[in-house]
Design goal:
19 helices, Cobalt-precorrin-4 Transmethylase, domain 1, 5-stranded mixed β-sheet, Methyltransferase, Cobalt-precorrin-4 Transmethylase, Domain 2, about 10% strand, alpha/beta, Helix Hairpins
């Protein structure tokens, strides 16, 4: 028999009656750690055996927990009965307990759990909060290992085991991927003990606290009511519900198609302008379209948001074996592109949707310059390309000659199309891998210069049509000289 007992969060006053009775009846108790306020109040007849020394000989907590579990199991086999005591409650934040329970099941050894008050209750009392008010409770060590916190920022959070300044430093870096650097937080020390206290700090300050110890937790208040992905999903679902907006309810994948294209184009414009506030606005509008399409799919029984997110996460992991599967790579763009394309091809083969053509998969409805560049770039990968840039230049002269030699407007338009395709190839040879953005920059330049011409005409109180071409051209050259 293995008995796992919870010592509660603080002094012996917080032990349950059942726990106290079990301790009084025992001769020996194994303690995960002696660093707990309750230890001084334990019955005096007990032989206390702790595992603190293991923490000094193992680099990884996983190894510490595995070793403690092994020793408890060995003691159970040798002695027949073991009493193992842990801080708080055995089922809250105690990794050794789950390992012992699994090993005991496999060995056919019975396990009894004597519960105790966890660290959560005194923390809630210290904060004056209700746990059912959306409180998220996580292990700070697990959060610190992430690149983005697995938290809903619209809800409060309590992160346990911020036991050192190093942990606090790693933790704040992860949290700063979602919360402002100066976000007000609280460090709770010794919750449940007579020495319990809290510190109000800014997030960036938490690793500077001199009071951090083995019984320190971090409290994060809600960031704001409408700051989470979940809140946005709920809002979209509301708009599509019978109590929502008639217009939103009537939309379909097809009816929303123009808006998706429009919002994507406006996002590109914000990117080109280099305006962060405008970019945030347009990315939000683009996300709205994605969520509307997803909610329509939910309403129609096509798929749900977890399906979309799962597939995307799985795809990203598959296509980055050099990040997630230990594949060795030089890191060159060419090699990384080959890895991505190889993974993509494997996916298509597994799905039974492998396409025959190398050019298949480029969206035909995408902007024409993008499609032209994609086609030529894919063909170039298998050697269907000029040997050097002079070959492209020669091809351009050939196409220009054919344009000039065309005998009808229809034929000339056709030849101009061929010439444009060559120009896209020429841009590729010059290192321009996004001809669409390149042309947007050209268009923006024309816009600025023409606006200058309009402004010069307006300054003289006349319409553009009242000026000769020579005057308009002079103002155009003026704008060019000004760097517009």
């Amino acid at each position: 028999m293995i008995t796992i007992l919870g010592l509660g969060p603080g002094s012996g006053d917080l032990l349950t009656r059942r726990a106290w009775q079990a301790l009084q009846a025992a001769d020996t108790v194994y303690l995960r750690t002696l660093q707990h306020p309750c230890v001084a109040d334990l019955p005096k007849q007990l032989d206390l055996r702790s595992f603190d020394s293991i923490y000094q000989t193992r680099e990884q907590f996983e190894d510490v927990y595995a070793e403690i579990s092994r020793r408890i199991m060995d003691s159970a086999v040798r002695d027949g009965a073991v009493l193992y005591a842990v801080p708080g409650d055995p089922t809250v934040g105690e990794a050794t307990v789950s390992k012992i329970q699994q090993a005991a099941r496999e060995a056919g050894i019975a396990v009894e759990t004597i519960h105790g008050i966890s660290f959560i209750e005194p923390c809630l009392a210290q904060l004056g909060r209700d746990a059912l008010d959306g409180m998220q409770i996580l292990d700070a060590l697990a959060v610190a290992e992430q690149y983005h916190p697995p938290l809903n920022p619209a809800l409060p959070a309590l992160l346990a085991q911020v036991y050192s300044r190093d942990v606090a430093s790693q933790l704040k870096l992860t949290l700063m991927n979602q919360y402002p650097d100066d976000f007000p937080v609280s460090l709770l020390h010794m919750a449940g003990a007579t020495a319990a206290n809290s510190e109000a700090l800014k997030l960036y300050e938490i690793d500077r606290s001199p009071h951090i110890g083995v019984m320190t937790s971090l409290y994060l208040p809600p960031l704001g009511e409408l700051t989470s992905f979940e809140a946005l999903q709920n809002l979209i679902a509301h708009l599509r519900s019978p109590e929502g907006c008639p217009w939103d309810r009537e939309q379909s994948h097809k009816s929303l198609r123009p808006f998706l294209i429009e919002e994507a184009q406006e996002t590109l414009e914000a990117l080109d302008d280099g305006a962060p506030a405008a970019l945030a606005e347009e990315l939000g509008d683009l996300l709205l379209q994605i969520l509307l399409h997803t909610q329509i799919a939910i309403d129609d029984g096509e798929f749900m948001m977890p399906d979309l997110l799962r597939r995307l996460n799985q795809k990203l992991i598959r296509r980055h074996p050099h990040v997630f599967a230990g594949l060795k790579t030089s890191g060159s763009p060419e090699e990384l592109s080959r890895i991505w394309q190889s993974a993509k091809a494997a996916e298509k083969a597994a799905e039974g949707t492998q396409r025959d053509s190398l050019l298949a998969g480029v969206p035909k409805g995408a902007p024409a310059l993008f499609v032209a560049h994609s086609y030529s770039a894919r063909a170039a990968k298998v050697g269907f390309d000029w040997g050097d840039v002079t070959g492209v230049e020669a091809k351009f002269r050939e196409e220009l000659a054919e344009v000039l030699a065309a005998e009808s407007a229809e034929a000339r338009a056709k030849e101009i199309g061929d010439m444009i395709f060559v120009l896209v190839n020429w841009l590729r040879w010059l290192g321009i891998d996004d001809p669409e953005s390149h042309m947007r920059a050209v268009n923006a330049k024309f816009y600025r210069r023409f606006c200058h011409v309009e402004a010069r005409a307006a300054a003289q109180g006349k319409a553009l049509t009242e000026f000769p071409l020579e005057a308009l051209e002079a103002w155009w050259q003026e704008a060019k000289a000004l760097g517009m």
